[in-house]
Every structure is written in structure tokens, then in C-alpha cells.
Amino acid sequence: MELADIINPNNLVYEKPKLLTENTMHYCPGCSHGVIHRLLAEVIEDMGIQDKTIGVSPVGCAVFAYNYLEIDWQEAAHGRAPAVATGISRTNPNKVVFTYQGDGDLASIGTAEIMHACNRGENMVVIFVNNGIYGMTGGQMAPTTLLGQVTATTPNGRDAGRNGYPLRITELIAQLPGTSYVTRQSVHTPATIRKCKKAIAKAFQAAIDKKGTSFVEVVSTCNMNWKMTPVKANEWMVENMFPFYVPGDLKDSSKNDPESYTPLKN
């Protein structure tokens, strides 16, 4: 038996989504952004909405997202993607609008924008990449940094008395009446990648059906700033981040009253 038959017994061939460009990604080895980009490309392609989709990317590691997905993009100032997406969605109601934001951007600099956009129920999808750190600017503490976690600005670990507590912003978002579907996923294994793709597809379908704001958090790694190998970073994420940022659906208006917040189990 050939090695290829052992690794891939069904002889399946993965075809790169047509929406992904040939540009070499600038992300660090082991970064989750490339996987999430691929899932976005697959979902948009599968749903046949390439010509209707507009992405909004602010400052952060994903600032060059427009280099990798062949859809319409709009850049935004740091933290302001929800405000820009609001304008695009309201003036182009037949388009499918999404933001692509990191935790330093969304949960810190853009807290007001994301909270009010979600509370208004703007018809958009939010992809929120949470790696617990400011990745692009040198690994400083972010609102999502865990207690005890070492960063460039917390060399002895985050201390609650000095730095406050980590922010579970997705739990806050789930309580807002304007949100339709709120979930927390990851992309560190084949199984979680498949689950994340389904969640992204569900969020985009909610936008197409004009159900308000859908919010997909993707708990991720930043092995470069965590100073770990990609394998060790994944292990650290599972052991330390998942107990605090628990994966699964938090709100689904197809199962619950959208004006109430009832945490859902996987």
C-alpha cells in the first residue's frame, strides 16, 4: 500500500477556493488567520455570493486581508470596522457585509463601535479573531489577555489588581437584542475547522435573511508573541484559553427568543 493511500484512503483531492488569490500570505507560521481566510473563501464560494459580499478590515494583523480574498473590501480605521460596515450595509441593503477584526481592535479600541452596532442589530457578520494579545504591534496585553498571561506589557503576568480582568466580550454581545447568532469556535484541528466553517456559513445565511448581527469569535493562537512553537501554542490555547473562552454557540435566534440571552450547550 502506498503512503498516499494510508494518509488519504479515499483519494480525496482538496481544491483551493477560487476566491483565494495566489499571493503569499504574510502571516507568521502557525497563525490561524490563513485558515480562517480559507474558510471565508469556501463559504462565500459555496453560497455563490462573491459579487454580493463586502468585507471590512481595520488595522491589525489582518489589515492586508484584501490581498487574499477576491471580493470587494473596504479598509477602516483601528476599531471602526463596525461603523464603516454599518454605512455600507445601510446604503447597500442587498449586499452581504462582514467585518474581520482582532481582539485588540474589536474588544479595546473599537468597544463602543461593536457594542452599539450589535445593539442596533445592523445586518452584518462579525468575524472576531481572539488570540489574547496585540499581535501586530509587539505582543502587548489586550483586553482578552488571561490572568497570569505574560505579554510585552505584563512581563510578570496579567494581574487583576493592576490590569483588571479579561473581557469575555462575546458573552456581552450575546445579551444584546440586535444579535441573531453568536458563537465561539476555533480552527486548531480538522474537526474544529469543519465546525467553524458551519458556524461562518450560518452567520452569512443570517445576514442574507436579514436577521441582524451575527458574531463569530474564533479563539486562536499567536505563537510568535506567545514565544511558543505552533504545536505548543495550540496545546496552551486548549489548556488555558478554552476553560475561560468556552467554545460553542452562545445564542441562536432560531432556537431562542432573540431578545433574551440563554447560553446554549454544544
From TrEMBL:
InterPro entries (alphabetical): 2-oxoacid:Fd_oxidoreductase, THDP-binding, TPP_enzyme_TPP-bd
Keyword flag Ubl conjugation: no
Keyword vocabulary terms for this entry: Oxidoreductase
Keyword field contains Plastid: no
Superkingdom, natural source: Bacteria
Gene Ontology molecular-function annotations: oxidoreductase activity, acting on the aldehyde or oxo group of donors, iron-sulfur protein as acceptor; thiamine pyrophosphate binding
Swiss-Prot/TrEMBL GO biological process terms: cellular respiration; small molecule metabolic process
Xref: SUPFAM superfamilies: Thiamin diphosphate-binding fold (THDP-binding) (SSF52518)
Record domain Thiamine pyrophosphate enzyme TPP-binding: where: 74-218
Pfam families (UniProt xref): TPP_enzyme_C (PF02775)
Protein name from the UniProt record: 2-oxoglutarate oxidoreductase, beta subunit
The organism of origin for this protein: Aquipluma nitroreducens
